[in-house]
Hints:
By secondary structure, chain A is of the alpha/beta class.
Amino acid sequence: MQVIGAHSADFVWRAAGAVAKAVSLGGQAEVIALSYGERGESGELWKVEGQTVANVKRTRHAEAEAAAGHLGASFKCMDFGDYPLQVDGDRLLAIAEAIREFAPDVLITHTDTDPFNPDHPVAHAAVDRARSLAAGAGVSSAFATIKPPQLFLFEPHQPELCNFTPTVHVDITSVWDRKVAAMAEMKAQRYLQTYYAQRGEQRGNHARRASGDQDVRHGESFMRVVPQVVDEL
Amino acid sequence: MQVIGAHSADFVWRAAGAVAKAVSLGGQAEVIALSYGERGESGELWKVEGQTVANVKRTRHAEAEAAAGHLGASFKCMDFGDYPLQVDGDRLLAIAEAIREFAPDVLITHTDTDPFNPDHPVAHAAVDRARSLAAGAGVSSAFATIKPPQLFLFEPHQPELCNFTPTVHVDITSVWDRKVAAMAEMKAQRYLQTYYAQRGEQRGNHARRASGDQDVRHGESFMRVVPQVVDEL
Amino acid sequence: MQVIGAHSADFVWRAAGAVAKAVSLGGQAEVIALSYGERGESGELWKVEGQTVANVKRTRHAEAEAAAGHLGASFKCMDFGDYPLQVDGDRLLAIAEAIREFAPDVLITHTDTDPFNPDHPVAHAAVDRARSLAAGAGVSSAFATIKPPQLFLFEPHQPELCNFTPTVHVDITSVWDRKVAAMAEMKAQRYLQTYYAQRGEQRGNHARRASGDQDVRHGESFMRVVPQVVDEL
Amino acid sequence: MQVIGAHSADFVWRAAGAVAKAVSLGGQAEVIALSYGERGESGELWKVEGQTVANVKRTRHAEAEAAAGHLGASFKCMDFGDYPLQVDGDRLLAIAEAIREFAPDVLITHTDTDPFNPDHPVAHAAVDRARSLAAGAGVSSAFATIKPPQLFLFEPHQPELCNFTPTVHVDITSVWDRKVAAMAEMKAQRYLQTYYAQRGEQRGNHARRASGDQDVRHGESFMRVVPQVVDEL
Amino acid sequence: MQVIGAHSADFVWRAAGAVAKAVSLGGQAEVIALSYGERGESGELWKVEGQTVANVKRTRHAEAEAAAGHLGASFKCMDFGDYPLQVDGDRLLAIAEAIREFAPDVLITHTDTDPFNPDHPVAHAAVDRARSLAAGAGVSSAFATIKPPQLFLFEPHQPELCNFTPTVHVDITSVWDRKVAAMAEMKAQRYLQTYYAQRGEQRGNHARRASGDQDVRHGESFMRVVPQVVDEL
Amino acid sequence: MQVIGAHSADFVWRAAGAVAKAVSLGGQAEVIALSYGERGESGELWKVEGQTVANVKRTRHAEAEAAAGHLGASFKCMDFGDYPLQVDGDRLLAIAEAIREFAPDVLITHTDTDPFNPDHPVAHAAVDRARSLAAGAGVSSAFATIKPPQLFLFEPHQPELCNFTPTVHVDITSVWDRKVAAMAEMKAQRYLQTYYAQRGEQRGNHARRASGDQDVRHGESFMRVVPQVVDEL
């Protein structure tokens, strides 16, 4: 499983449970951030007098690495800058290369729309296109290709305004404490810790209603982009 | 698995593979037709001089039963009449009762729109509502309830005009001969046998492209209505 | 060409140009109203003291007949009542029978949604379903069938709120005076005469922009439901 | 303000804040339930041995009345029955009459879709149509009409699956305690009290992000159906 | 209020009434054009023999300034060029800076789609993203931020083809003469003066139907992008 | 008729019938490829040891030219490169110039979305914008303009996942052998020959159902973007 977010903390709120669950079941997970969110999404850090971009990046790197550690995933950052995040041809190829290298079975990124964030849609467009470049057209080609990863979009902050309709709920009950631990590393964003703790309970409720399985206590929701191929319905 | 179609042959073209696959993996399957499609969808039979509605129903029943037999499923018909199919309050409750009785894990029916068929959307609306009546609201109630079945819509004849977007491809390679045998029972609809044989190959191709699994030769496509609950992405 | 509206004046504002054009090119046209709009859409008539439903119907019939006459079309009313219009099984079959009898090449009705009118969506649903009943499934059947009419939706009063996207503009420049004459018969609705005269100019402007043909002065817009079959793009 | 829900508790979870706010600002509010939700939505009550429908209705009536009382609203129930709720022509007219009588400036009901509830879409369709019947076509008519109420849809349990996109957040910070008190009356649905308390905080967060106003602590979200008419953007 | 259009005349047809109304009620308004529309949208001027781009720009500047003057707004042009309008990273930041500087409560721009114009969607994308850059993520950041402006899209020439659904009608009756005066400054586009004068009447009609307020004579329609936060429904 | 595809073989599978039909009825047709698809879509060729990009391009050019020859169309390639195809400002103007030069009545390209191909949406966006640049705004301008071509999107490989809804079926029965011959030139893509031969039969079936015309044996389906302007419905 590979998670590619615009900023270094995105994976924590939106996919930490799915990552921890995959790892707990024997999978490998890599988190990639296209930027540290250093300018626009580092809230509390910018209340510190004399703060610098370099220092914010350092702090954010440490936080993300610690959070990923709780989940059993590796973390790396492409450091493309934020607010605005810009992805030109070379950066697109770098993202495709990162996907090709890890060759994930499951790839997760942002939705295509977000009226509250200038960088999330840019990340979506780049990752979606990079995935196609890495997987190729299903035929021999001039470059190495990988098996097409399943593509999922994680939950944005305001789902209904971001073209997000959940099509999969992951039962993350058994790894809930790891998500809580990962969120706790994001010291500058305490409010979001409460917000996404509540959200985890609510998605658990939704999963119970959809499945009738009363044992689900916490959930995370995703939107599948490419059809699933199954042996049986 | 339970499949509820407007007319007695619908399940053959649209879900025979998924039914056969479920049965081959140890599941149980029931096919319910709301009508025999005796007036509007019995093509060749109405070219026979002196044909009667009663006789068409008899023939259609035998064909559907034989087709279901090839798949390992049982078949029953509610005989509500077709062109137009009408579902009032009592019939709605009868459909809910049929769902409650079989208590399927997976329930399959038509899409909500079909500009080429007056009965398919009626069937969709009735089955969708009956499913909620059978499953209840996830709490104790004045009537018996079942675990909410997963709801899927099968592929209509002209998908793009019927609000159909495939979200699941079932690999039916191993049971393809059973679908072919089931389709062959529909003696009055030879053209559709060719049409859906081709469609099975094409959905196999789509499944290969989506999964990268070159062993899929035949597929059937479905649209999931309620989110899936999974242990892992 | 057959136009079926919920109320007796609907065809005038929304399709008079297309009707007159079809007739002027040698076609035959029939207008059917499901009701006279006697209770809800007869504005000025209800300002007359002592007005009665019977009298309103008489006046509306005369107006609609005169308007249809200007266009070269016949008019009949099913008189099902309005506000609310209700269509049960028998009425559905009566509409299907009317379509089967006239066997139009082109059938026109309301959009499926209208937050400003309780009867228009009811008319849409009935006509859409009746059309399928009249045309059958393209195979032999227990009842007589006709060649499937092309289905169009005419322009509602507030298009963007009614799921209306124009896909065809008809150039009605050569029959504009007939539409104006037909609208003038609707004596109780003067404001709408101005409104739809403006709308005719605007749709002419849209048609000029779409086609580059500067000779179009007046247009009427429609939304095609079932794909068009052509010899050449 | 008039709120019309399918079951007697719907208004509490979905619109109690907006009701209390309207009343606190000098408005009048009426809550109408089409049924008591006696069969399908009375959870805990059906765990009581020997429970009867009549008794459940009595309990639900008392609870709803008490909840409405906390908000300053009146409550009445049409008692049409639930699971399934059925609305025929006479009931449609009764709903229209109730709207005409109260003549609300603001009318609130369910979304048009809900894959988890068989009655909510039925209530939506009936209220939407009844509103048009009560308001008429903006011209004189055979029946009394009222000024068209603004139509809003309240938040369903799983918004993204119910065609719900919030277009208005109401700041209910100042009446939050009243919503909490109203929810507490629903003794049989403790879990929902927690759920919607969290939801109120989250919608408060969304309202802060949308407006930049840091004083909003709790919110309720609605979807406006008919365009708003304003003096100024 | 700040209006940002692709070409210097866009604000006149689409938002002059809303601008004049805001100013008449004590607000301040700024109009920004990303280009003069000098190459593609200056119609009559290019019929003048020996016409030059520099001269067209001068004329267009004078016209837009005069029009803005009638409304009580200031006007400035970024002069990025048109047909095609191109917005790279630096220009994006310049637009963000312009928004940050004016810090509007209300920001208005184009829809995201327009099959008849190559520049309007480019302007939409740039303004939407620039707004997020100017407002930030609602937390402290490395750059100055403003309170998030409410975002509206103004009415395109062919609404149904441009993803435009009106959600707000502004009553511009009291400032209609100012819009007429502003439109009259666009001497090279006489036809549009008639077109948008009619449109103003029609939107007035729509506003009357939506609100029941018979005093609205002229309206302008907008589509709100981010939910509204209100004290009361 | 002008067809502009991302890769040199796209026109064969998706529009060869429409091209051949237009030519057979006396029209002229030009096919433009933005790239040869040399890196990503040349399947079998890359199984040849020692293969080079230059050689693949040569082979693909010959194949496309031969295929276009069967249809009676000319072929040229802009050679912009593939996987990824990139279109900057200069290339956009080059495409606009190519459209202006040929001044087609009908212009055909890709859909706006394709989760299986990184280049198709890029081609769509460029052609859509270039068309507007070539046609201008319907008024005099600083550059030469052409009559706006009708814009169609051809059928993608997986229509429902690519925002493709067919709105026009072309009857290609009389030129079916030419499409077969053109497809046969694509020697490296044998599977697609079978796939699109089946698809041609299926679209013929859809066209028979839509029109009731039993003589249609093969069809090709397209999605019209800008409304059609007609003399009569």
